[in-house]
Write a structure and sequence with these properties.
The chain is 25% helix and 28% strand. With 267 residues, the protein is an alpha+beta fold. It folds into 2 domains: 2-91 and 232-266, Double-stranded beta-helix (4-Layer Sandwich); 95-225, 4-Layer Sandwich (Double-stranded beta-helix), CATH 3.60.130.10. The strands form 4 sheets. It has a 6-stranded antiparallel β-sheet. Strand 10 (180-181) and strand 11 (189-190) form a beta hairpin. The radius of gyration is 18 Å and the shape is globular. Pfam families: TauD. Residues 6-262 form the TauD/TfdA-like domain.
């Protein structure tokens, strides 16, 4: 059902706490995959973590979970323990629709970028900064304070590192594809990248792998298309939402507090 529909919702199943949610995740029988990325998160119970703990006032941009890492989850499972009083929807986007529309408007650019691949950079501090939605420090991200061990783990994930004078690190990832085709999903090309989310930002960049700039108009129009294709999902207490991470981009709308959504990522 997840592959066929891209998203499946369980509502009304009396799921109240992390332990209940973990039972559902473990019942499905999928292997766990540890989150690696910039979002500040806290381990809650067994397979269960908090979703991005960045300020609720900020919009978390659409993304495929761990899209830049060599091994990324097939399924992202979300549980709403406390729905927000206002806002806080989890919007998601059928990824293939973005590819189709970008090919209609930018056929040459899409094929050029896909052929060359993309190179991303991201700068992380040493320690966590929960005032930022991308404030996870490298020590937490790699599960070690030892630089040599962090480099080894980064290499295994397909990234290089440059150490900065302030104790932070610049990670370099690439080349990565612009689109991907996954088995069982009708041969559709998924918009499996994070160009819009990382292009020209303070802590990140996205270039073609040969160093060529991605055209600004390409990025801006892609941003518009993603928003136009988005589906706004409003949470109710106890909801468990399964997302096909191969097929859907997802994000988080700004909200008033409180909002508590937990997550499990699965192979």
């Amino acid at each position: 059902m997840i592959i066929k529909n891209s998203a499946v919702l369980l509502r009304g199943f009396d799921v109240k706490k992390a332990e209940d949610f973990n039972d559902i995740v473990e019942t499905c029988g999928w292997d766990d995959i540890r989150y690696v990325g910039p979002a500040p998160r806290t381990h809650i119970y067994k397979r269960v973590w908090t979703a991005n703990e960045g300020p609720l006032s900020e919009f978390i941009y659409y993304h495929h979970e761990m899209v830049l890492i060599k091994e990324f989850p097939k399924k992202v499972v979300l549980f709403c323990q406390i729905p927000p009083p206002e806002g806080g929807q989890t919007p998601f986007v059928p990824s293939f629709k973005v590819t189709e529309r970008m090919l209609e408007e930018f056929p040459q650019e899409v094929e050029e970028i896909d052929a060359k691949g993309l190179k991303y950079t991201f700068t992380a501090l040493s320690n966590n900064d929960t005032s930022s939605m991308r404030g996870r420090g490298w020590e937490d991200a790699f599960g070690t304070s030892d630089r040599a061990e962090a480099e080894r783990r980064a290499k295994a994930l397909g990234m290089d590192m440059e150490w900065l004078p302030n104790g932070g690190v610049k990670t370099i990832l690439g080349p990565r594809p612009l689109t991907r085709v996954f088995e069982g999903r009708k041969g559709r090309r998924m918009w499996f990248n994070t160009v819009v989310g990382m292009h020209g930002k303070e802590l990140s960049s996205a270039l073609m792998a040969d160093g060529t700039e991605v055209p600004e108009k390409f990025v801006k129009r892609c941003d518009q298309i993603i928003e136009e294709e988005s589906i706004q999902f409003k949470w109710e207490a106890g909801d468990v939402l399964f997302l096909d991470n191969y097929a859907l981009l997802h994000g988080r709308r700004p909200s008033l507090p409180p909002r508590k959504v937990l997550v499990a990522t699965c192979k």
